[in-house]
Specification:
Rossmann fold; five-stranded mixed β-sheet; Arc Repressor Mutant, subunit A; 353 residues; 17% strand; alpha/beta
């Protein structure tokens, strides 16, 4: 992942200092000329940073008087949406976590606005590493905080969240749904998770009933180690540790594994989670791009672009993450809040008109 732009870094520094109290509420910031000189950036860049902070409700710019740290007491409730790094929201073809994060955040912002809640995004690591977290970003969290967490990438800060006494909503998928060592934390929070047995049943039924498949397989690293359900096969594959950031060599190796598996097992129906593919021919099918014959019918899992951009369109199993974001806000702001597990519903987008 590329290093965050300088404006993201500077905005993050200001945000951390404001939320930690290092910059007191109501205090006046230096002039734009002084700040741009001190930071070594152009005034235009500084103004973009200040505009972003103003949109987040962290500063207030008063013409003729200057820029001031906004009072948090005047704002409504604050919803803290955790990000691994600021760059996660950038558009990336095939980077499923970016797509899910954007959809989830959109739902949180929309419902938060209806409930007079301000949404703050907290980018935890400039390096996008969960062992390199900036503790200042979390310093302001307390028992009045409402925190949204997507995936177990954030496991290294669970203890900090627990100690803060905040309300938290965690969303996980696949084999992240049950992690015994983390139960001490997740049992205290709202835990949104997808219904894996229902997901497998839906995909297998579609492949057999709609596509006349006789032998079905599921290949998805997020389901590795779980029961294969109604599928005939769940072949073991070697997946890179960072599935979403595969190198071209990793992707080619995966494609070779997939082709070899088909030659051995001769399945004709496949539930597949795919990484970004090198040299994708968007005029050809996903099967072709994966090195499989077009006779293999594929349903994708995850939020990649393959069901909309490849021709013919590829059916996909999806979750409505925008609606999940809406429900998370309702639960976190409910006066009768109580920790519980909530199933995300999956649906099959068959791309048929």
């Amino acid at each position: 992942m590329k290093p965050p732009k300088i404006r993201n870094r500077i905005a993050g520094d200001f945000r951390a200092r404001i939320l930690s109290g290092a910059l007191a509420e109501g205090s006046r910031l230096p002039t734009e000329k002084e700040m741009s000189h001190h930071l070594g950036i152009a005034r235009e860049t500084l103004r973009e940073v200040l505009s972003r902070l103003e949109e987040e409700g962290l500063v207030e710019r008063i013409p003729g008087k200057g820029t001031f740290v906004a009072s948090r007491k005047r704002a409504g409730s604050v919803l803290s949406f955790l990000l691994p790094c600021a760059d996660i929201l950038a558009d990336r073809i095939g980077y499923a976590n970016s797509v899910i994060t954007r959809e989830l955040l959109c739902g949180v912002i929309t419902e938060g606005a209806k409930r007079n809640c301000r949404v703050e995004t907290l980018a935890l690591s400039p390096a996008n590493r969960n062992d390199d977290i900036d503790p200042r970003v979390l310093a302001h969290l307390d028992s009045s905080s409402r925190v949204v967490v997507f995936s177990l990438w954030y496991r290294t800060i669970f203890e900090r969240l627990e100690k803060s006494g905040c309300r938290a909503a965690l969303l996980t998928l696949g084999n992240e749904n049950d992690d015994p060592p983390l139960r001490r934390y997740t049992d205290q929070w709202l835990h949104f998770r997808n219904d894996v047995p229902a997901l497998l049943k839906t995909a297998d039924r579609f492949l057999r009933a709609e596509c006349d498949c006789r032998k079905t397989a599921v290949i998805d690293p997020t389901l590795q180690g779980l029961d294969k359900g109604p599928f005939d096969l769940m072949p073991r594959f070697r997946y890179p540790k960072q599935y979403s950031l595969w190198t071209p060599e990793d992707r080619e190796h995966f494609r070779r594994q997939l082709a070899a598996c088909w030659k051995k097992e001769r399945f004709d129906g496949l539930l597949l989670k795919v990484s970004e593919l090198p040299s994708v021919d968007f005029s050809r099918s996903l099967a072709f791009n994966c090195g499989l014959p077009d006779s293999v019918r594929i349903v994708t899992s995850g939020e990649g672009p393959y069901n909309t951009r490849l021709l013919p369109h590829t059916p996909a199993l999806r979750c409505d993450f925008r609606s999940a974001g809406t429900q998370i806000v309702r639960e976190l702001t409910n006066p009768e809040y109580h920790p519980r597990k909530i199933q995300l519903e999956s649906f099959l987008d068959s791309c048929q008109s």
